[in-house]
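Notebook, bench 3.
Goal today: get a predicted structure for Class II fructose-bisphosphate aldolase from Arthrobacter echini so we can plan the truncation constructs. The sequence was checked against the plasmid map this morning, with no discrepancies at the termini. Length recorded as 287 residues. Pasting the sequence as submitted so the record is complete.
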Amino acid sequence: MGVAPLKDIVDPAFQARYGVPAINIFNDLTMEAVLAGAVEANSPVILQTSVKTVRSVGSRVLFDMWQSMTRGIEVPVTLHLDHCPDRAVVTECLKAGWNSVLFDASELPVEENQRQTIDVVAEARSHGAQVEGEIEAITGVEDDHGSDEVSQQQSLEVALAFIDATGIDVFAPSIGNAHGSYKAAPVLDVERVTQIVEARNVPIALHGGSGLSNEQFTDLIARGCAKVNISTALKETYMQSSLAFLKQAEQNNKWDPPSLFKHTRADIVAMVTELCTQFGSAGKGGR
């Protein structure tokens, strides 16, 4: 199937109640390894970039890498801009060829968030792209974006009105989840997912996935969380794998960068295939 619109990936997952890993990459190695893991698992995957990654690597370089690495790929893949409050970056990525964006105006009043999200949806549609939206900030700082302060949860009526008015394709509610590593087991408002799905039949994005239990993932995916975001787990795997290899290299006084990259890549591929199996997307790639 190859590069596909976000809806072509999340809608089947939502209907069949499996979750698609949406993984934040940050360089060429992580991009290639995440894609390779999806191919190995025969799973769709959503590859995500933060605003920080777009600015540090550059949208043109990122998209050129994406085009090169997805040429001829046989599983459904899509390129998504994660948590972007900057309309200029949204426009830049849509023009470059991103398949979807999360316009994150959760720090604005809901009315202004809604007004701007309507504009972003129209802009995305002109590029054949989709939009994820949210009205409450997800607790935690990720790639220099966000806050550790818990934001106020809006009413179900406000959430449904936002979905109706904007025409977003995926909705990301705050349910007690958080970005980064959880300091304690989170208590999640899972019923809010069910209420939104029963009222509007819209795919839900689960943010702050790194660190949730298998039982929590299974329950939330069954309720309609078709897009499952993973960022911290990849960062930890990348850095811990590299650190372990470098400690061994120091001990052996043997410095071979390609061997380091091969070692780290293998650990990332393994992480991705495990996530695909855990979320139920393994084998759903159409091959």
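The chain has a mean pLDDT of 92. The CA atoms of residues 42 and 287 lie 7 Å apart.
Flagging this for group meeting.
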